[in-house]
């Protein structure tokens, strides 16, 4: 949700900020802006739409400066417009970029208007910059004014702030939204994500909750939430600038779909010794925690929630441990009851999803003693709030529609099922079988990727459709949900998933020749049941596309098109069946000409409620 980048250097920072914005565009892309201080004046450029628009604006009318801040927006308060785009400025003196939401903005706006501040946007952010300006009247220096102003703000923020009164100072603040400082040689940068700054540095300081940093060329001071001067470690990132390049692929999403065999092998890498899962992969005290738990509660959002839904089937079937799962935004406000000794498992690609983080904190308030995160970003807030962690190691995922993050989450969750299951129902033989299934996954997915051309042709049937239904049973019902989510996210076709057995209770009424019904049909114990459901659809003239195990007999029915999926082992087959559905959504979106990597209205890292 919104990307921030800023810098203070001995060279013009504008090209660095622009490149940073391009790399942060996955966080929001409805408008972009940039401001610098030069000669005691703030120069600002803003443009509706993507960063490219801002780039063109700057080409036509360049600005430059050795200190600057920039922003790419995902609108929360106020529609996407140039006036609402950041940076926001107070009386030509202070400029601010903001990621997060200020909850008491209406009250602050009223007071500030009475104090004579003029508002030029509908955003919650504008109150921040006026509040700092107001505080400057009664305090000494920008840093103290920021500290004073922040006390008035309720809500979440990552901020980059600069003032013409102190053109050699950049202020960075973090509360509830991520922010890193990139440490260069004789220069510093700030950003919402390390990816933005990889072209200029690989050394990062990760600000903690409540931190305020005063940054100048010669000095970096960080104050913690208690206003104590603190030292934060500099960490070396393993990522390189080209880790977030598209390479030869037309879209990031396609690249990330194709990276799945490698990504899954990375998830497994080094976590087994002599084919036996090592529990310290989850943290040094994992064994002790696993010994004490009696139930699992999974919390997540979006695609990560779908990974959790599959895991619930696995936990209960394979490990025989009670497992609940809930969308994080519901859990956090529902007054849930947690069974004693419940392990909270959060799942998140970014580790910054506001609802997932808040749900975890809520669970802790409710007395949860153990929390484990399945996450893709090592320094993320979720990782830091959790006792145990299993990194998915998918590598940076840029496409807004999640692909490799999902299949690596499922792989990581199966590792957790093994570790916990050992203490419950999972036999040594079953563990060995699942382990060997896991190691065969990269090869299986390579085979599925060979269906790409066939699926591209199939996608043509969807381009003119308005709706689609996805069916699955058991662990493949969440895969149907994920397939439907992918299709709606990037092709804007309305898609719904149903457990196939539920069809007769309503959705069958929707069936006609204009509603493609995509069905996931692996060769498992539910196949016969599923076949009956398929017949129910066909008998009513429904058009089915069935992703089916290659070993199964052909079906002679003109309403049914079969795509043969390489034969897969039982428990891990949801991971394999995900891939053709990703490819289907991708090709439909390409045919429809939508913005595959940055679909309308969405953003990747949802750091607001
Ligand atoms: C957004 C993204 C989804 C993602 C969800 C949860 O909605 O567009 O792709 O699944 O957030 O994100 P997380 O980072 O917590 O997995």
From TrEMBL:
<feature type="domain" description="Glutamine amidotransferase type-2">
    <location>
        <begin position="2"/>
        <end position="218"/>
    </location>
</feature>
<dbReference type="GO" id="GO:0006047">
    <property type="term" value="P:UDP-N-acetylglucosamine metabolic process"/>
</dbReference>
<feature type="domain" description="SIS">
    <location>
        <begin position="286"/>
        <end position="426"/>
    </location>
</feature>
<keyword id="KW-0963">Cytoplasm</keyword>
<dbReference type="InterPro" id="IPR035490">
    <property type="entry name" value="GlmS/FrlB_SIS"/>
</dbReference>
<dbReference type="InterPro" id="IPR017932">
    <property type="entry name" value="GATase_2_dom"/>
</dbReference>
<protein>
    <recommendedName>
        <fullName>Glutamine--fructose-6-phosphate aminotransferase [isomerizing]</fullName>
        <ecNumber>2.6.1.16</ecNumber>
    </recommendedName>
</protein>
<comment type="subunit">
    <text>Homodimer.</text>
</comment>
<dbReference type="GO" id="GO:0004360">
    <property type="term" value="F:glutamine-fructose-6-phosphate transaminase (isomerizing) activity"/>
</dbReference>
<dbReference type="InterPro" id="IPR046348">
    <property type="entry name" value="SIS_dom_sf"/>
</dbReference>
<dbReference type="GO" id="GO:0097367">
    <property type="term" value="F:carbohydrate derivative binding"/>
</dbReference>
<dbReference type="Pfam" id="PF13522">
    <property type="entry name" value="GATase_6"/>
</dbReference>
<dbReference type="InterPro" id="IPR005855">
    <property type="entry name" value="GFAT"/>
</dbReference>
<comment type="function">
    <text>Catalyzes the first step in hexosamine metabolism, converting fructose-6P into glucosamine-6P using glutamine as a nitrogen source.</text>
</comment>
<dbReference type="GO" id="GO:0006002">
    <property type="term" value="P:fructose 6-phosphate metabolic process"/>
</dbReference>
<dbReference type="Pfam" id="PF01380">
    <property type="entry name" value="SIS"/>
</dbReference>
<dbReference type="GO" id="GO:0006487">
    <property type="term" value="P:protein N-linked glycosylation"/>
</dbReference>
<dbReference type="InterPro" id="IPR029055">
    <property type="entry name" value="Ntn_hydrolases_N"/>
</dbReference>
<keyword id="KW-0677">Repeat</keyword>
<dbReference type="InterPro" id="IPR047084">
    <property type="entry name" value="GFAT_N"/>
</dbReference>
<dbReference type="InterPro" id="IPR001347">
    <property type="entry name" value="SIS_dom"/>
</dbReference>
<dbReference type="InterPro" id="IPR035466">
    <property type="entry name" value="GlmS/AgaS_SIS"/>
</dbReference>
<dbReference type="GO" id="GO:0005829">
    <property type="term" value="C:cytosol"/>
</dbReference>
<feature type="domain" description="SIS">
    <location>
        <begin position="458"/>
        <end position="599"/>
    </location>
</feature>
<keyword id="KW-0032">Aminotransferase</keyword>
<feature type="active site" description="Nucleophile; for GATase activity">
    <location>
        <position position="2"/>
    </location>
</feature>
<keyword id="KW-0808">Transferase</keyword>
<feature type="active site" description="For Fru-6P isomerization activity">
    <location>
        <position position="604"/>
    </location>
</feature>
<keyword id="KW-0315">Glutamine amidotransferase</keyword>
<dbReference type="GO" id="GO:0005975">
    <property type="term" value="P:carbohydrate metabolic process"/>
</dbReference>
